[in-house]
Amino acid sequence: MTRPHLAVAQYGTTALPYRVERRPRATLSIEVKADGSVLAVAPLDAPDDDIRKRIEKRGAWILRQQRELAVLPPPLPARRYVSGESHRYLGRQHRLRVVTGEQEGVRVTRGELIVTVRHPERAEAVVTRWYRQRAAAVLTERMQVCLDRVAPFGIQHDGTFQLRRMATRWGSCTRQGRLTFNPLLIRAPKECIDYVLIHELCHTREFGHSHSYYALLGRVLPAWKQVRARLNRVVELTSTPAL
Fold first, then answer.
1. Phi and psi dihedrals of 117, rounded to 5?
2. Is 202 helix (H, G, I), strand (E, B) or coil?
């Protein structure tokens, strides 16, 4: 691997700074990082002009990714998982109350998440596991609701998905229709969870963020812009370890 260097491409009237990192590989990949910076990971022998041309060709996609990242709330400091700390669950803020006991688990009651742990340092692991379990259950339930909602628009899917913590995305869909969702969605209101599921289900028919895709999303969920804004406003992206 060679030392990274900076370069600039031009997309229309917009300058696109990017960083080039060369590795022993056969293909070139382009990534927009969480801070909006652009990274091109290139083969060791790839000409600089070819890399620049590829950046320019992907200019519209890069700018779209940067715009989407710009509306996300800034990351919060890592949580300490101690009593009194505030955590969201299904859109509502709950206070954490950590108590000791042999039967570890989390219970939701009267605006609190009561976390029972054998030792206080176990609180993060117990809460993390509980969030993931609740995400699997609630997203499975909401997926059935969303499949019924998209079916009249010619969208068919078997409803399977996986959970994976993602730094800047709530969900993703491959060209083969494989769905992945961020387990932190369990912190959002159900309306927002449904939006993310529908957003990705629409990609199974219209891959990419084309005009046709947004037209389809608008027919399925006319208020999607307002719901997306609510999601990005109420759910915190934190620097806690991946679920």
1. -135, 155
2. helix
Q: Quick check: 152 and 130 in contact, CB under 8 A?
A: no
Helices 190-203 + 123-150 axis angle, to 10: 60
Q: How far apart are CA 198 and CA 209, in angstroms?
A: 14
Q: Are residues 228 and 123 in the same domain?
A: yes
Q: Report whether 157 contacts 201 (CB < 8 A).
A: yes
- List phi, psi (to 5°) of 26: -100, -20
pLDDT tens sequence across 55-112: 999 999 999 888 887 776 655 566 789 999 999 999 999 999 999 999 999 999 989 9
Residues 111 and 155 in one domain: yes
Give the strand pairing for 179-181 and 162-163. parallel
Picking from 195, 143, 206, the residue whose alpha carbon sits closest to that of residue 173 is 206
What is the Cα 131 distance to its own chain's centre?
15
Which value, to the nearest 10 degrees, does the dihedral of the CA atoms of residues 55, 176, 65, 218 take?
130
Residue 195 lies in a domain: yes
Tens digits of residue pLDDT in 160-171: 999 998 877 899
| Cβ pair 113, 92 in contact under 8 A | no
Residues 6+ apart with CB under 8 A from 94: 86, 87, 88, 108, 111, 112, 113
- The parent domain of residue 173 ranges over 86-234
Q: Are residues 92 and 192 in the same domain?
A: yes
Residue 107, domain CATH:
3.30.2010.10
Are 151 and 63 found together in one domain? no
Residue 169 lies in a domain: yes
Please give the distance of CA 144 from its chain centroid, rounded to a whole number. Answer: 21
Q: How many domains does the chain have?
A: 2
